[in-house]
Amino acid sequence: MGAGGAGGGQQQAESQPIPPSRAPVPVQPAGLPTATNRSFPMLQKRLMSALVAFDVNNAEEIWREASALYPSESLCTEMLMPVQVAIGEGWHRGEVSIAAEHFASRFVEGKLHNLLNMQLNQPTGPLAVVGCAQAEMHELGALMVALFLKWAGFRIIYLGQNVPNATLESLVRQVRPQIIGFSATTIEAAHNLVETGQILSRIEPPRPMFIFGGMAFYERADLRVRVQGGNFIEGDFRATARQLAAQFLK
């Protein structure tokens, strides 16, 4: 009977609710991403902070986190490019060092190169040759165009920086692309695209569609009309790629 009484007392004690002040409190591990800081505005802010601090490990971790959540196109338009633009604007205002701006640009370019190379060309898609004008060393615009054309169904030959005009005629005759596109951010490179247009116009038909763009043609809008046979592209790269796909993928 004594044991039974003790057991009853134990059951009664175990059935008593735990006072709120003594209840265990869930602990959120430090640094664990939440839904809030996985939104694109917060990912942009976190990535920019890591890049201007030269914190490559943190930047890579943020990139891996975002890559697990969002498709590649969204990563380009909603993360990489806004961060690059914001850092560039910070440099112009004197808030970001030139070293940090260069570091961020190399990080963004590296990710765009990885995205371009990770997907194979469509075996039957129309061919687009994309690169930077002669004397142009900034690849971001050309890489974005190449990526969105590839995602739209084009086969891509990406030529990278500083493509000499002297190589273009033989290249076009060899691979016969449907589109050839170049970017220029400097006035020197834009003037070189004037020569590019002249070279391409001398090639016997069928000639590729010649597209071009870049910041230089905003600084000197008069140069746009001097690029013979060229089609100036601006605005949303994704929309441009889809329009070209609708034209060539028939």
UniProtKB/TrEMBL annotation:
Molecular functions per Gene Ontology: cobalamin binding; metal ion binding
Compositionally biased spans, kind Pro residues: 17-27
Region called Disordered, residue ranges: 1-33
InterPro entries the record matches: Cbl-bd_cap (IPR003759), Cobalamin-bd (IPR006158), Cobalamin-bd_sf (IPR036724), Meth_synthase_dom (IPR036594)
Record field: compositional bias (Gly residues): 1-10
Domain B12-binding per the UniProt entry, residue ranges: 125-250
Source organism, top-level taxon: Bacteria
SUPFAM superfamilies named among the record's database cross-references: Cobalamin (vitamin B12)-binding domain (SSF52242)
Protein name per UniProt: B12-binding domain-containing protein
Organism from which the protein derives: Candidatus Viridilinea halotolerans
